[in-house]
């Protein structure tokens, strides 16, 4: 009688364990792909903005170079250089602020995805030892053989 109960529970666990393992794998894969998508979207916006700022910087440098022949004195040239340096400094400050914002966003996304991964692992961890053994194809754990050097 106990044999029939044992066999019946193994049959139910046998069907459930692979399904649960498969669901855990699929849930994990979906979570990884969703995370990658979010990260790429965040980076794409930052890189696009950075490229736009680089284009503006190149245009500003070109305009400054066009003004060099108009400088009649060293004071004019120095003033032009100071204007260019001021613009470059402002662009650098904008770049640092933008990259800082992106780093903050990426760290927030990382925390979010670590929490999601924890939930996925926790959801899959409700398998009991018999189900885990079956999911592992009933492989017994190996005991280490004594070392011959002792």
Task: State the main characteristics.
83% helix, mainly alpha, 150 residues
Description:
- This protein has 150 residues and is mostly helical.
- It has one domain (18-125).
- It is built from 3 helices and no strands.
- Helix 1 (2-67) packs antiparallel against helix 2.
- The radius of gyration is 31 Å and the shape is rod-shaped.
- Residues 1-14 have low confidence and may be disordered.
Largest sheet: none
N-to-C SSE series?
Answer: HHH
Number of helices: 3
Radius of gyration: 31 Å
- Beta-strand residue percentage: under 5%
Structural class of the secondary elements?
Answer: mainly alpha
- What helical percentage do the residues reach? over 70%
Give the uncertain stretches in residue-range form: 1-14
- Termini Cα gap: 48 Å
Globular, elongated, flat, extended or rod-shaped: what is the shape? rod-shaped
Quantity of strands, as a count: 0
Number of self-contained structural domains: 1
Integer average pLDDT: 77
């Amino acid at each position: 009688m106990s044999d029939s109960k044992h066999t019946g529970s193994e049959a139910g666990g046998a069907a459930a364990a692979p399904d649960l393992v498969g669901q855990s794998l699929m849930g994990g894969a979906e979570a990884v792909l969703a995370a990658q998508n979010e990260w790429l979207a965040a980076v794409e916006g930052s890189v696009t903005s950075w490229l736009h700022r680089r284009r503006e910087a190149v245009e500003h440098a070109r305009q400054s170079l066009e003004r060099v022949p108009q400088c009649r004195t060293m004071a004019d040239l120095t003033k032009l250089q100071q204007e260019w340096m001021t613009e470059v400094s402002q662009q650098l400050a904008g770049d640092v602020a933008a990259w800082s914002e992106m780093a903050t966003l990426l760290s927030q996304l990382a925390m979010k995805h670590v929490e999601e991964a924890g939930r996925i692992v926790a959801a899959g961890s409700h398998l009991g030892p018999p189900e885990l053994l079956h999911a592992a194809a009933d492989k017994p754990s190996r005991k280490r053989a004594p070392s011959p050097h002792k």
